[in-house]
Amino acid sequence: MEQLRLGPEFFSDPHADYATLREERPTSRVITPMGSEVWLVTRYADVRAALADPALHKDNAEFRALMEARYGPTRRSLQDAINEHMLAADPPDHTRLRKLVGKAFTGRAIAAMRPRIEEIAAELLDEMEAGPDRVDLLDAYAFPLPITVICELLGVSMNDRDDFRKWSNTLLQSADLEGQAAAARSLAIYLTSLVDERRAHPTDDMLGAIVAASVDSDKLSRTEAISMAFLLLIAGHETTVNLIGTGTYGLLQNPLQLSALRADPSLVPGAVEEFLRWDGPVHLATVRFTASPTVIGGVSIPAGEIVLVSLTSANRDPSRWPDADRLDVRRQPTGHLAFGHGIHHCLGAPLARLEGEVAFRGLLSRFPGLALDTDPSLLTWRPSNLIRALDRLPVRLR
Fold it and tell me: What percent helix, strand, coil does the chain show, rounded to 5?
């Protein structure tokens, strides 16, 4: 197998390439869309170990220094204001940042949100019932449900949701550096204004709590408050949008599984876990780098190397799940890595699971005639290292 290039063909259907890599070169050098060589980890056991390996760091300042040593100095930009969040931090900063928002995502706090999430889903389904038979399910349902939830949680105006989606889609593209920089600037300006407004006029929502912590510089800096708002806003909807979209696509491609779920709605929570395993919303985990030499999957990796770990590949590893390529809503996919592992395990996982459960229960009960409204070969996937996501999902509701 030649050295793999992470380009449009790969993003459209990475599973065949991953099967070959897991068999032949489970930890190997690959070429990113921008032409850089990095390490890619693909086997379940190695990915799980790498996600918790203290030799793999994520600190933004440390990573920036590594990149400048390799490629030369770069100018500080407005984009840096959104990169000081907990996903780009190591302990003790990571511990401090995560603790500040952890209370909002406890099991009890998330369970209390169920009635409102069900209400939002019902309102969207009512609109779909009253509208045309053909819709893009991402636009009509998968996107507005989680973006409404996270905007209400943060206390952010819903009037700006289309801008969030545009900025988010651009930021997560893998090769559009110019577009990413412009989207990052726009989002940084917006969030900076929002944080400064909360500092002047405190509120009792989650963003208000984050900003209040930033007033005490021992807890959170102003830049960290902006970055935390960015992380919660983007991560708070992207994962669930694509859980709903890709999970629905999987069901429409597997009629027997769809029928099983319709016949027994008690299978829905387990099915959500299977959707996460089978083709979860996060493709490659956010960037890590070796702070010291380390061994992954029997391969020695020097210090100062970028390492990408593939959650998508790990979750299709047949050594962990028999017949791993098959979608099976009765499977018990415990231990899947769709939300990561270790200290960076997704804080919002309980919320995404709840939103997914509510979304699928409502959709399948309201529209028994739901069907794909295009040739599957015409569907396209977003060219992103980070997100595994369809560009659109045309469906017939009746």
Answer: 55, 10, 35
Torsional sign, CA 205, 211, 216, 220: positive
Range of weakest confidence among 221-230, 272-281, 345-354: 221-230
Between CA 80 and CA 88, with CA 86 as vertex, the angle to 5 degrees is 50
Task: Indicate the pTM of the whole model.
Answer: 0.93
Would you kindly state where each structural domain of the chain is located, as residue ranges? 8-396
Separation between Cα atoms, residue 162 and residue 181, nearest integer Å: 18
Q: Domain 8-396 falls in which CATH fold?
A: Cytochrome p450 (1.10.630)
Look up residue 335 and give its amino acid. Answer: G
Ranges of beta strands (E only) in the chain are: 27-31, 37-41, 56-57, 134-136, 288-290, 294-296, 299-301, 306-309, 371-372, 394-396
The lowest-confidence range among 161-175, 180-194, 223-237, 256-270 is: 161-175
Going by C-alpha positions, the residue among 154, 174, 170 that lies closest to residue 104 is 154
For residue 277, give both structure tokens. 């395993």
Backbone angles phi, psi at 293, to 5 degrees: -55, 140
Give the closest residue to 229 by CA, choosing from 192, 174, 259. Answer: 192
Confidence category of residue 69, pLDDT binned at 50, 70, 90: confident
DSSP characters over 41-75: E-SHHHHHHHHT-TTEE--HHHHHHHHHHHH----
In the block, tokens 């970028």 appear at 306
pLDDT grade for 175, boundaries at 50, 70 and 90: low
Output the furthest CA–CA distance in the chain (Å, rounded).
60
Backbone angles phi, psi at 2, to 5 degrees: -70, 165
More confident residue, 151 or 122: 122
Selection from 140, 158, 344 nearest residue 248 by Cα: 140
Distances (CA, A) of 310 to 22, 66, 98, 387: 11, 22, 23, 11
